[in-house]
Write a structure and sequence with these properties.
The chain is α/β, with parallel strands linked by helices. It has 15 helices and 22 strands. α2 runs antiparallel to α5. InterPro entries: Ald_DH/histidinol_DH (IPR016161), Ald_DH_C (IPR016163), Ald_DH_CS_GLU (IPR029510), Ald_DH_N (IPR016162), Aldehyde_DH_dom (IPR015590).
């Protein structure tokens, strides 16, 4: 059964930018074609921001922060706007799901489920207005009265990826808003609708002018955002290569930076765990967003004597996957988001085969689909952990099975990577799971499945990023601690 499609993207002002509380004309007539990955047809055209447009947005955000009223409101007052944003998102769930599936290729049914969770991000951070300790009382060593006040970091430049744009921008926007920051959001050219929809909701709820500003741009204009002296902090989600560039640019003026980057996460399968259960779990997570997930478990580390049996079980699971139209409820997996993305996946798989891996399943474009950027879920066996395919993020539905000598070797292999975003331990023994978790160098360790830790802390070790998103940990990067020491206690101090 195929779900009905919205004929056109439900955006009110695709040819404009949301800057300073208004929908403004761009500096040029240049447009960005947004291509539907399942059809290879133009789905939408939006205005392309140039450095002048980005600088205009930064100026608006700067005024909103420096002159108020937003940063001077109480957290409780800001929370009311955030709850209104959450309600606005709930009212537009159908549009969110359709645009997400149309722009990125995620299964429409999956987009419906995931989209329904996004308003909760704003509700959670709104709840911090009352539960977070914004000002702490201290006793200075030299006498007097002391407080530690946590104040907004300032103007935030938020750069979000194409794979889950509304999710990514919400984990940045919501904590920044409750903290009292103003924001310039740079949307991805592949999936700009999330930013536009959010801007429309910000306008509807009466968010003060300049608190949220939205533009869509390619890399040159993105660098203008990062290097603009009006930006106090950059929050970026994307590739490690781009993250390194942003970190270098921020270092030049000591701008604050948060980086949520790539991963090559390991799933360690211990000898006591059922391999069919492992295969079912990993096949399911591989189909998630067509494998275009930074925290995907793409290195499967298993004892050498169980390697072939696990490969067989995974191959059987992959054979069941129906690749097809993301709006068809019978599809298990949609396309990847762009032609260049599929080409990159195919090159990496080809390199893996050249370096000695065995193709156990998939690896090709589905024969029944002559249009769209589809690729089969792909399984490589007998992969060397130092090979190209084991060291580089495919950002697609590709698993590499790596044989290990024993459990110590599994830990060594898991940690022998420049990345450290996610991982998982498959075992029936809770104590061994805990012991493995404490020895793995990654920001998240799951048990018997791919786990999402955004509810309390998500981020990576090593080249997987700097800082954390989600939960109270995700609020801290948008705050600056200020020590205040006074001779006497003022009457209005907490």
């Amino acid at each position: 059964m195929t779900a009905p499609k919205i004929a056109a993207a439900p955006l009110k002002h695709p040819g404009r930018f949301y800057i300073g509380g208004e929908w403004v004309k761009p500096s040029t007539s240049d447009l960005i074609d947004v291509i539907q990955p399942a059809t290879e047809e133009v789905y939408l055209q939006v205005a392309e921001a140039k450095p002048e447009d980005v600088n205009r947005a930064v100026d608006a955000a700067r005024r909103a922060f420096d002159e108020g009223p937003w940063p001077f409101m109480t957290p409780a007052e800001r929370a009311e706007y955030m709850r209104a944003i959450a309600e606005g998102l709930r009212k537009r769930q159908d549009e969110i799901a359709y645009t997400w599936a149309s722009e990125m290729g995620i299964l429409h049914g999956d987009a419906v489920v995931r989209g329904a969770k996004i308003p909760g991000i704003y509700d959670f951070y709104a709840s911090q207005a009352d539960s977070f300790e914004w000002v702490e009382r201290h006793t200075p060593a030299g006498g007097g009265y002391g407080w530690l006040a946590r104040e907004p970091v300032g103007v935030v430049g938020a750069i979000v990826p194409w794979n889950a744009a509304l999710v990514a921008l919400s984990w940045k926007l919501a904590p920044a808003l409750i903290a009292g920051c103003s924001i310039v959001l740079k949307s991805s050219p592949e999936s700009p609708s999330a930013g536009y929809l959010l801007a429309e909701i910000a306008e509807e709820v009466g968010l003060p002018a300049g608190v949220v500003n939205v533009v869509t741009a390619h890399r040159p204009a993105s660098e203008a955002l990062v290097t603009n002296p009006g930006i106090d902090k950059v929050s970026f989600t994307g590739s490690t290569a781009a993250g390194k560039r942003i970190a270098a640019l921020c270092a030049d003026r000591v701008a604050r930076v948060n980086l949520e980057l790539g991963g090559k996460s390991a799933a360690m399968v211990l000898d006591d765990y059922d391999l069919e259960k492992v295969a079912a779990s990993l096949a399911d997570s591989t189909m998630e967003l067509t494998g275009q997930v930074c925290s995907a478990l793409t290195r499967v580390v298993v004892s050498k004597h169980r390697h072939d049996e696990l490969v067989e079980a995974l191959s059987a699971e992959f054979a069941k996957v129906k690749v097809g139209d993301p709006f068809d409820s019978a599809s298990d997996m949609g396309p990847v988001a762009a032609q260049r993305q599929r080409d990159s996946i195919e090159r990496l798989v080809g390199k893996g085969l050249e370096e000695g891996a065995k193709l156990a399943a998939g690896g090709h474009r589905p024969a029944h689909l002559d249009k769209g950027w589809f690729i089969e879920p792909t399984l490589l066996a007998n992969v060397d952990n130092h090979s190209t395919v084991a060291c580089n993020e495919a950002f697609g539905p590709v698993l590499s099975v790596i044989p290990a000598e024993n459990e110590e070797d599994q830990i060594r292999i898991a940690n022998d990577s420049p990345y450290g975003l996610n991982s998982a331990v498959f075992t029936n023994d809770d104590n061994r799971a805990w012991q493995f978790a404490r020895r793995i160098r990654s920001g998240t360790v799951g048990h018997n499945a791919h786990r999402n830790s955004h509810a309390f802390s998500f981020g990576g070790f090593k080249q997987s990023g700097i800082g954390r998103e989600g939960g109270r940990e995700g609020l801290m990067p948008y705050l600056e601690p200020k020590a205040i020491i006074l001779d006497r206690e003022p009457t209005d101090a907490p």
